[in-house]
Amino acid sequence: MENSKSILAAQESFESKQASMFIAVDKLFALHNDMLLESRLIKAFFVYCISIFIIYMFTSMKQTYKVRPWLYIGLCATFIIEVAILRLATDDNIEQKSWIINLVRSLFLLLASIQIRNAIYTYRDYEVLNHQMLLTLIEKINGMQDTRSWHGTWIVI
Q1: How buried is residue 71: exposed, middle or buried, by Cβ count under 10 Å (0-12/13-18/19+)?
Q2: Which residues span the membrane (predicted)?
Q3: pLDDT tens column, 53-62
Q4: Total-model pTM
Q5: Measuring CA to CA, how many Å separate 80 from each of 64, 75, 125, 140?
Q6: Residues 72 and 139 in one domain
Q7: In angstroms, rounded to a whole number, what is the distance separating the alpha carbons of residues 129 and 137?
Q8: Is residue 75 a contact partner of residue 48, using CB atoms and an 8 Å limit?
Q9: pLDDT tens figures, 114-152
Q10: Do 148 and 91 share a structural domain?
Q11: Which domain holds residue 63?
């Protein structure tokens, strides 16, 4: 009887130790998931910093500098969406989160490239057009003055 009581006590002690070990393992998993989340956020921060530089380089031309603010706004929105997906999504399916994040990034890349191409193809350099108009006007005025002087000399003769 005493042996079975000691075995029962040992089993209860083992159960309590096992429960405390499971609690510790759960805390370790939670810490591990938090570390993965923070490392993904740091990676995303660096990706978006590099993206800011790339957008700046692509929009430094005369043709594309007007779309720069829209691209920065879209980049900020994409970053906020990504952080929200990482922070607020309750499921622990990392593959699904990664797929959604890649989809959002790809959508931004597609829209940004469309905006840049549209800015390049629809760009009108008004300074060059004004210069060409002024040259045309000067040629016409010079032509009119030449015909007046020619007519004037013909009349005199």
Answers
A1: buried
A2: 41-58, 70-90, 96-114
A3: 999 999 998 8
A4: 0.67
A5: 25, 9, 36, 58
A6: no
A7: 12
A8: yes
A9: 999 999 888 888 888 888 999 999 999 888 887 776 665
A10: no
A11: 2-123
